[in-house]
Amino acid sequence: MQLSSDVLFSIAGFPVTNTVITTLITDVVIVALVLMVGRAVSLRPKGAQNAVEAVVDYFREITESIAGERASYIYPWVVSFFLFIVISNLLAQFPGFESIKFRTLTSGSCGVPLFRAATSDLNLTLALAVVSVTATHCLSIRYTSLKSYIARFITFKLFPAFLFLGILEFTNEFAKFVSFSFRLFGNIYAGEKVMATMYNLCPLGLPIPFIALELMVAVVQAMVFALLTMTFMHIMTDKSH
Amino acid sequence: MEIVQRFGLEAKLFLFQLINFLVIVFVLKKFLYIPLKRILDERKNKIEQSLRDAENAKIALENADQEKIKILLEAKSSADKLAASAKISIGEAKEKAVAEAEQRSEQILDDAKHKAAEEFENMNKQIGKMSLDVSGKVISKVLSDLFTDDEKQKLMIRALEKIDEQIAN
């Protein structure tokens, strides 16, 4: 298993990789969930609405407990990150997910996996990191004013320490791209590596505890990404910071 | 550059994932969060309203209980008053009825006495008449052998006149 995803075929110069296929499946699952729940919401929840409501309400309450009234514009981002990451992570835990092979011109007779965990592709995790950080900064400008936003990084006070703190803040924001994207990518990719190794060592029985571990990692990583986004959004939209 | 290639970073794939996620966020926000938020708020308001109603109902129940106790106390007090006045009325009615009964019995007694006196007088008159007839018959029987018919007639008339005078007296 290599670090980069495998290109299955190309459409008008666009390389369709196995992670793109999984991303599209994740989209289909999310849209199906939206159609199932969003179109028939009722005061007495049942079925899928219960589960979705529980997730949305959980994040809304956590966000409200931290960010107060600013929660209304923070939590939609948080829930979106969580749902997208957790669904794509859990899809990869289906038995035989990576066993289905697709033969390409360059793959030889063995072929390449048709599906691969979407979050084990750095393109996706980096895109999620960019969206998270950019949305955080946009919300910061919108809710604390441009002047206050710029003052976080550039201060006009002559004391040299403030200038140094500004540079640190600036570096910190760029570090977020790396931390967000590589944390998620690294955990999921490493998990897949571990699972592949276990299946190779002893396919019967040995992978079971690791499947449980990977299921936990799938949810925990989604939570970590969502909660970090929430924390950064809260800090950046708070006028006192 | 080599690291970028090793991780498979590619601008097209990166942009695809970026746009794809933004679309998903839009879809979720538009078709899931807004209806869900509306429902959650509605439910929250309904629960709050129900709690308020329950609180009001509790207060109303307490008021009703107090009102009940007040009404019961008033009812008891008025019942006591009624019982007391009924006792007085019964006594008065009893006395009145006894008085009326006594008066009525006296009247009946008077009437009976009066009627008895009248009856006695009538009886006396009838007895007088009867004794007059009997006397006439006795006299005529006694005198039939001693006197002539004319003498008998005169004597009888005189005796009857005498008896009549006696009765009248």
Can you describe this structure?
- The complex is a heterodimer of chains A (241) and B (169).
- Chain A is mainly alpha-helical and 241 residues long.
- Chain A has one domain (7-237).
- Helices cover 68% and strands 5% of the residues of chain A.
- Chain A has seven helices and four strands; from the N terminus they run ββαααββαααα.
- Chain A has helices at 18-38, 48-67, 71-91, 122-144, 146-151, 160-201, 207-237, and strands at 7-11, 14-17, 101-102, 112-113.
- In chain A, the strands form two sheets. Chain A has a two-stranded antiparallel ribbon with strand order 1-2.
- In chain A, a hairpin with a 2-residue loop joins strand 1 and strand 2 (14-17).
- The termini of chain A are far apart.
- Chain B is mostly helical and 169 residues long.
- Chain B is 93% helix and 0% strand.
- Chain B is built from three helices and no strands.
- The A-B interface holds A 2-5, 13-15, 17, 20, 23, 27, 30-31, 33-35, 37-39, 41-43, 52-53, 56-57, 60, 76-77, 79-80, 83-84, 121-124, 126-128, 130-131 and B 5-10, 12-18, 20-25, 27-29, 31-33, 35-36, 38-40, 42-43, 46.
Give a short synopsis of this structure.
The complex is a heterodimer of chains A (241) and B (169). Chain A has helices at 18-38, 48-67, 71-91, 122-144, 146-151, 160-201, 207-237, and strands spanning 7-11, 14-17, 101-102, 112-113.
